[in-house]
Automatic annotation (TrEMBL):
Organism of provenance: Nonomuraea guangzhouensis
CDD domains: siderophore_interacting
Superkingdom of this protein's organism: Bacteria
Pfam families, per the entry: FAD_binding_9, SIP
Residues of the FAD-binding FR-type domain: 12-125
InterPro entries (alphabetical): FAD-bd_FR_type, SIP_FAD-bd, SIP_fam, SIP_rossman_dom
Protein name: Siderophore-interacting protein
Length: 247
């Protein structure tokens, strides 16, 4: 049962909106548009994410049992319209019945949804050039970041998806690779695609996002093989198999 206290905590810690519209944008990726007056004045930098409460955590029992963290899932914002007080998220269906996947798969217009204010440091920074690497879950943040880059900024990158029809349309021409049924976890395919990029000799800034072990491998390539400093590489792990909160 929800109480006055849990309602107060919800309104203090979360933004509460309503699902307005859903759209299947690839066979396994679904766009969710969320709006409401509570989104008025929301501040967002392209690349930042929100954390959705994909289960009902606003009960005294949930707070007492410490179920809050396991009910929150991270999603990048694809688009923010401050005029109409809306945000658009795109979620990837990993299969199975994980909390985040189930919510994305079943979200319907009219549903109430609570989420944290936008946060995160995966945002574009001044650099000689920009390098993007990740899979489907990363391409959502990448799309927003690429739209925010001024014309003339030099961009390189590789994006992995299961098949040709699983890629999101992005505003810059990044290398597309397909794993054709192979696992996105610890993907050597993405590492090899980055290895083949004809990057300048000097480092730029890299933005790596998606499956945790894969982006660790891409970062290792940049640091060990190309001589980049770790500070030149920005990472955001969104998921990895078997880790609670990242499923």
């Amino acid at each position: 049962m929800r109480t006055t206290i849990t309602h107060a905590l919800r309104d203090r810690l979360f933004v509460v909106g309503e699902v307005l519209e859903t759209e299947q944008v690839t066979p396994r990726m679904r766009k969710i548009r969320i709006g409401g007056e509570a989104l008025a004045g929301l501040k967002w930098t392209p690349g930042q994410h929100v954390r959705l409460a994909v289960k009902d955590i606003f009960t005294a029992r949930a707070w007492l049992r410490g179920e809050i963290a396991n009910a929150l899932r991270t999603y990048s914002i694809w688009h923010h319209d401050p005029t109409w007080h809306t945000i658009e998220l795109i979620g990837f269906d990993h299969g199975g019945d994980g909390p985040g996947t189930s919510w994305i798969r079943n979200a319907r217009p009219g549903q109430e949804i609570a989420f944290t204010k936008p946060e995160g440091s995966l945002v574009v920074r001044p650099a000689p050039y920009h390098l993007f690497a990740g899979e489907e879950t990363a391409s959502v943040a990448f799309g927003a970041m690429l739209r925010a880059l001024p014309e003339g900024e030099v961009v390189f990158g590789a994006v992995e998806a299961d098949g040709p029809g699983d890629h999101l349309d992005l505003p810059r021409d990044l290398t597309r690779v397909c794993r054709e049924g192979a696992s996105a976890a610890s993907s050597e395919l993405l590492v090899e695609a980055v290895r083949k990029l004809a990057l300048p000799d000097e480092p730029g800034v890299a933005y790596l996002a998606g499956e945790a072990r894969t982006i660790q491998a891409v970062r290792a390539h940049l640091v060990r093989e190309r001589g980049w400093q770790r500070g030149d590489v920005r990472t955001k792990p969104f998921w990895t198999p078997g880790k609670r909160g990242l499923d």
